[in-house]
Every structure is written in structure tokens, then in C-alpha cells.
């Protein structure tokens, strides 16, 4: 599986916010990672919609995690942003292939997906977040 740029930016934004004790803003994230403010803003909107980030408007506003880093599972974030992560269409769609009824590859790839998802669900944002000191050294 290869993650989309949007998922990559979402994970990076969450990792950045996990290092903060105060609110940040979209420009902080964009500057650190050298990415477009526009792209980060789109990702932050989705993160807020999914309940990972809280966005506060006005003076003293900004963005912050809406949940503790240990409560955010990477598998869930990836699934929300990627949608279907099937390696082949036949894994969740019937009558797509002439050999589908007896194909053993479908089962192998479905199991690989299950193992990957189980692993990503076992990893939390707290497990992958850098320290604030590490980010300061950049």
C-alpha cells in the first residue's frame, strides 16, 4: 500500500501537534515540513471533521489535538483518509474476475491486508510522535 499525500500530511500534522502543549497554526505545520499552507489547511479541515483536531478561531486560536495521542490509532487515521486500502478490487467486489470463485490469491492478499491493519491499529500517535526537542533541532 502506498499512502496518498493527503494521508501523509495528516499523519505529519498529528505528529507535530502531539509534540505541542500549546496551540499551533496551519502555517507552523506547513513551514516545518516545507509544504503548502493550502494543503495543510485542507488536511486540518478533514482532521477536525474526523474528530482528531480541534480548530479554535479568533485571538489565541489555532489548532490542537482533540484527543490524547495514545487514543489515536494509526490504522484508523489511514482508513479514514485512504478509504479502501484493498490490494485488489476482487477482495471486496464479487464477480470481477473469471477465476474469483477458486482464486487463492484473493485470500492471501485479504490476509495481508488484515495483518497490516491489525498492526497499524496497534500503533498509536504517542508511539510515533517525535519529541518537541527533536523538532526544535530542525
Provide tags for this entry.
138 residues; mainly alpha; Arc Repressor Mutant, subunit A; two-stranded antiparallel sheet; 2 strands; 6% strand; elongated
Question: Secondary structure elements and their pairing?
Answer:
Elements (H helix, E strand, L loop, with lengths): L4 H14 L7 H8 L3 H13 L3 E4 L5 E4 L8 H9 L21 H19 L2 H4 L3 H5 L2
Antiparallel strand pairs: 1-2
Helix pairs in contact: 1-3, 1-4, 2-3
Helix-strand sequence:
HHHEEHHHH
Spans of at least 5 consecutive residues whose pLDDT stays below 50 are: none
If you compute it from the alpha carbons, what radius of gyration comes out, rounded to the nearest whole angstrom?
18 Å
Write out the strand line-up for the largest beta sheet, numbering strands in chain order: 1-2
Our count of helices gives 7
Mean pLDDT: 91
What helical percentage do the residues reach? 40-55%
What's the number of domains? 1
| Quaternary structure state of the chains depicted | single chain
What is the structural class?
mainly alpha
Count every beta strand, where a strand is a DSSP E run of 2 or more residues: 2
Shape: elongated
Pfam families: Rrf2
Organism: Blastopirellula marina DSM 3645
GO molecular function: DNA binding; DNA-binding transcription factor activity
Keywords: DNA-binding
Amino acid at each position: 500500500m502506498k499512502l496518498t499525500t493527503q494521508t501523509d500530511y495528516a499523519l505529519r500534522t498529528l505528529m507535530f501537534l502531539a509534540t505541542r502543549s500549546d496551540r499551533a497554526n496551519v502555517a507552523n505545520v506547513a513551514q516545518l515540513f516545507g509544504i503548502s499552507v493550502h494543503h495543510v489547511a485542507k488536511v486540518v479541515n478533514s482532521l477536525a471533521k474526523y474528530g482528531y483536531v480541534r480548530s479554535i478561531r479568533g485571538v489565541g486560536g489555532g489548532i490542537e489535538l482533540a484527543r490524547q495521542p495514545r487514543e489515536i490509532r494509526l490504522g484508523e487515521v489511514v482508513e479514514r483518509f485512504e478509504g479502501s486500502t484493498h490490494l485488489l478490487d476482487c477482495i471486496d467486489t464479487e464477480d470481477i474476475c473469471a477465476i474469483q470463485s477458486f482464486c487463492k490469491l484473493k485470500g492471501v492478499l485479504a490476509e495481508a491486508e488484515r495483518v497490516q491493519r491489525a498492526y497499524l491499529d496497534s500503533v498509536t500517535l504517542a508511539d510515533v510522535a517525535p519529541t518537541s526537542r527533536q523538532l526544535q533541532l530542525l
